Automatic annotation (TrEMBL), chain A:
Residue ranges constituting the GST C-terminal domain according to the UniProt record: 87-207
Domain GST N-terminal intervals: 1-82
Pfam families (UniProt xref): GST_C_2 (PF13410), GST_N (PF02798)
InterPro entries: Glutathione-S-Trfase_C-like, Glutathione-S-Trfase_C_sf, Glutathione_S-Trfase, Glutathione_S-Trfase_N, Thioredoxin-like_sf
Biological classification of the source: Bacteria, Pseudomonadati, Pseudomonadota, Alphaproteobacteria, Hyphomicrobiales
Alphabetical list of SUPFAM superfamilies matching this protein: GST C-terminal domain-like (SSF47616), Thioredoxin-like (SSF52833)
CDD domains, per the entry: GST_N_4 (cd03056)
GO molecular function, one term: transferase activity
Protein name: Glutathione S-transferase
TrEMBL record, chain B:
PROSITE patterns membership: RIESKE, RING_HYDROXYL_ALPHA
InterPro entries, per the entry: ARHD_Rieske_2Fe_2S, Cholesterol_7-desaturase, Rieske_2Fe-2S, Rieske_2Fe-2S_sf
Residue ranges of domain Rieske in the record: 4-108
GO molecular function: 2 iron, 2 sulfur cluster binding; iron ion binding; oxidoreductase activity
Keyword Metal-binding: yes
Organism domain of life: Bacteria
Name of protein: Rieske domain-containing protein
Keywords: 2Fe-2S, Iron, Iron-sulfur, Metal-binding, Oxidoreductase
One Pfam entry name: Rieske
Iron-sulfur listed as a keyword: yes
Length: 207, 202
């Protein structure tokens, strides 16, 4: 059975849990004591992922790190419909937004670790970067809405939406509300209404 | 505070949704139940102060996320799940502002004595937050802080732009138009946003 090395408060692990649930894939979890145990920096975990980051996903002998890569694997291996990672003109756009979700949007994660767990770092700088990323996404979603679209790419939800949702929803933990982002506010509600949606601490499972 | 303040585009508050807004440093929330009427309340649950914008709408009621206290359209508490048999005293109420919708925008007022403005229905364009003081934004767009609307000529149209003060250094615009090319008007307003913010940074 596929296995997710998981930390319940991690937004990146949540990306994977979301898609596993939406695709109805049976899986087991192994809890990793990220905080305060720092288990992800211990030799046994570094043997799985030398970057010392969560999540890690094991599936039939494959060991994958990076939430975005794991989403691609799940869509590619388990989604017969092809909806979540479309292999047509949408593919490049989905990849572009996946990169954004694993890149610029992660400023929210950095700010959240400082705000919640007292991690060292410059909170104001990360919040400013997070706001820049959120505005970019809000502008995009407003354009999509003006064209009649609900999702980040195309007419159906894709892994671009799944990869982007967790840290957008968790931005409150980083001291950033959604007041400035009306299009994000509408989009995140659509994500919550998807079949198989689950919450996590800080993200209610119903809407 | 001015009598009636536009705080959102109606389009951005469809049935079943909550929307948080900061109005002159105050945390405010808008929600719309199945009856279609926009409610504007302080963003604070009377129970333990949870932000009501994080709650959820069912039917014509708003439910607080924290302990599930449920509020009706009149802002009175309908139900306390921990005490299901209790008839909730009418003194338990959310703090509601006067609310109105006109010209494609949701408006709020501290004091419902003055009637809300009456505006023709216009097409929603975009709401934009600008990290610049309202005085400066209004000077640039040819508006006045004494007026809730800015008239901005654009192409063959005149955009009607509601605005509200988020705080001393941030403004939110709510743009509508009569026959505007919405995409072009949006791009125009985003360019204005960039110019204004770069002017502040410079
Ligand atoms: S704080 Fe809202 S129900 Fe308790």
């Amino acid at each position: 059975m596929p296995k997710l090395y998981d930390y319940v408060l991690s937004g990146s692990c949540y990306k994977v849990r979301l898609l596993l649930n939406m695709l109805g894939i049976a899986y087991e979890t192994q809890a990793v004591d990220f905080f305060p145990g720092r288990e992800h920096k211990r030799p046994e975990f570094l043997a799985l992922n030398p970057l010392g980051q969560l999540p890690v996903f094991e599936d039939a002998g494959l060991v994958l790190r990076d939430a975005q890569a794991i989403l691609c694997h799940l869509a590619s291996s388990y989604d017969a419909s092809g909806q979540w990672l479309p292999r047509d003109v949408r593919f490049g756009s989905v990849m572009m937004w996946l990169s954004f979700a694993g890149g610029e949007l992660m400023a929210i994660s950095g700010a959240r670790m400082i705000a919640m767990l007292n991690y060292p770092g410059d909170l104001a700088t990360l919040q400013a970067k997070a706001r820049t990323a959120l505005r970019l996404l809000d502008d995009h979603l407003a354009d999509r809405a003006q064209a009649g679209g609900l999702w980040i790419v195309g007419a159906t939800p894709t892994i671009a939406d799944i990869a982007s949702f967790p840290y957008v929803a968790l931005s409150h933990d980083a001291g950033i509300g959604h007041e400035d982002y009306p299009a994000i506010n509408l989009w995140q509600r659509q994500v919550r209404k998807l079949p198989g949606f689950v919450g996590m601490p800080g993200v209610p499972g119903y809407f | 505070m001015a009598d009636w303040i536009p705080i959102a585009l109606s389009r951005d508050v469809p049935v079943g949704i909550t929307r948080a807004v900061i109005v002159d440093t105050r945390e405010v929330m808008i929600w719309r139940g199945e009856d279609g009427v926009a409610q504007v309340w302080e963003d604070r649950c009377p129970h333990r102060g949870m932000r009501l914008s994080l709650g959820f709408v069912r039917g014509n009621a708003l439910n607080c996320l924290y302990h599930g206290w449920q509020y009706g359209a009149g802002a009175n508490c309908l139900r306390i799940p921990a005490h299901p048999d209790l008839t909730v005293p009418p003194t338990i109420r959310a703090n509601a502002f006067a609310a109105a919708e006109t010209g494609g925008m949701v408006w709020m007022s501290d004091d419902s004595a003055a009637p809300p403005p009456q505006l023709p229905a216009l097409t929603p364009v975009i709401s934009l937050a600008i990290e610049v003081a309202p005085e400066r934004v209004l000077a640039e767009l040819g508006g006045s802080t004494a007026e809730p609307l800015i008239e901005l000529p654009f192409a063959a149209d005149t955009l009607q732009i509601g605005w509200h003060r988020v705080h001393a250094a941030k403004t939110m615009l709510h743009a509508t138009g009569a026959g505007a090319d919405i995409g072009a008007a949006t791009a125009h307003l985003r360019a204005l946003r960039q110019n204004l913010e770069q002017g502040v940074a410079a």
